[in-house]
Please model this.
Amino acid sequence: MSVIILLLFVSIGIASLFLLAFLWGVKTRQFDDDFSPPYRILFDDTKPSNNIKAASEGAPIVP
Model:
């Protein structure tokens, strides 16, 4: 039973360290990104493959 109590205190201690690290990151504005959200809509997430480009140009698709 004493092992469970020890593990409980250790887990609460580790969780509090992660909470303090997160709060420090928020306080020092580590998660703020004011530049890229307006421009993110302008760029594609993926690059088109050569097969899609060839098909749009009328060339046969070669596997």
Observations:
- The two ends are 64 Å apart (CA to CA).
- The mean pLDDT is 80.
